[in-house]
Amino acid sequence: MGKRRKPSPPSRARLAVLTTAMAGGVVLTAGPAQAEPTPSLASVKEQVDQLNEEAEQSIERYNGFQEKQQKLQGEANRIQEKVARGQEQMNQLRTQLGAIAAEQYRTGGIDPSVQLMLDSDPSGYLAKASAQNQVVDSQAALLRQALAEQRRLDQDRAEATATLAQLDTAASSLADEKKKVQDKLAKAQALLNKLSAADRAKVNAQEAAATRASRSAADRTTPTPAVPATGRAATIMQFAQAQLGKPYVWGATGPSGYDCSGLTGAAYRAAGIKLPRVSQDQWNAGARISRADLQPGDLVFFYSDLHHVGLYLGDGKMIHAPRTGKNVEVLPIDAMPYVGAVRP
Asked: Choosing a second label site near 114 at 20 to 30 A (CA), which of 54, 159, 186, 303?
């Protein structure tokens, strides 16, 4: 009979694994790794709704930063044009002073006051020059004009520098807020992607049904309000109803898509009224209206921080742009935490 071979002793690496597992009470079993369970539709919906609400808060902040950036850019452009005009005026004055200097040089020397004005900042020199009778009246008038222009130019340059610094800050805040919005929407989409095929089909069917309902609402009779829409209110509501079914697009003010305050602002523009860009600022754009006195066209606001706004339609309903992935729709005002109303 042949000799039986002894089994090879376990390697040091294998011994280490076994020792660690025994010490920790871990049972090593063979088999495939367990797949992550598919989340329930209710769980995903709750998380997605929360992320969409947080995204809308960020969207309104983004809109605010964008509005500020646009205003600052306009202000910076205005000041820089003013600086350019001032520099042109200063160059013309220096040309005149240069002509005086050239004439004085030909006749025996340059007046110290003119030379100083050409070579450096004239601040403080005129007082000394007057005391020493170093300039004639015509030269003094030109020097005073140049001095005043130089001071204005320095002030304008300082204002331009400050405005451009604010513009940089606004641009940075805008970029940060945009990233927050994109991150939240990406998380919401990632959660939806984890749903089973059946649940995804349910979500798609719900969204399709909501879109059909929003579009058909435009063709139905408007709910009868306590006070019929007339004048500018009629114009506002006609515009809003024509937008039903258009997609929510964050940061958009139309015409192909809207966010919540973008829709309300566009509807009021149709009636010749300019509203602030952000929902929180629209809250301060008119008189507060009690719920019992709501009329078509009134702005209705939701959530404690006023990050959502719609247009009252009548019969306890509103037209609003809801959130990413949905469309402009008709919804009862009690569908969200109602805060109050404003009539601009």
From this structure: 159
- Cα–Cα distance, 310 to 279 (Å, whole number): 9
What domains does the chain contain, in order, with CATH numbers? Answer: 41-193 (1.10.287), 225-343 (3.90.1720.10)
For residue 90, count other CB atoms closer than 10 A to its CB: 15
Q: What is the structure's pLDDT at 301?
A: 97
- Retrieve residue 68's tokens: 């500020």
- In angstroms, the CA 220 to CA 214 distance is 10
CA 66, distance to chain mean position in Å, is 4
**C-alpha 50, offset from chain centre:** 20
Contact 146, 117 (CB under 8 A): yes
Q: What is the pLDDT of residue 224?
A: 44
User: Which pLDDT score is estimated for 220?
Assistant: 54
Contact 326, 248 (CB under 8 A): yes
- Reading phi first (left if > 0) and then psi (alpha if -120 to 50, else beta), residue 325 is in left
**CA dist., res. 267 & res. 275, Å (int):** 10
pLDDT the model gives residue 249:
94
Find tokens 């820089």 and name the residue: 80
Mean pLDDT by 10 residues, the chain (344 residues): 50 40 39 58 82 88 90 90 86 73 57 52 50 55 79 87 89 89 88 81 72 56 50 93 94 95 97 96 96 96 95 94 92 94 96
Tokens coding 101 = 């200097």
Q: Model-level pTM greater than 0.85?
A: no
Evaluate whether 171 touches 49 at the Cβ level (below 8 Å): no
Catalytically annotated residues: 260, 308, 320
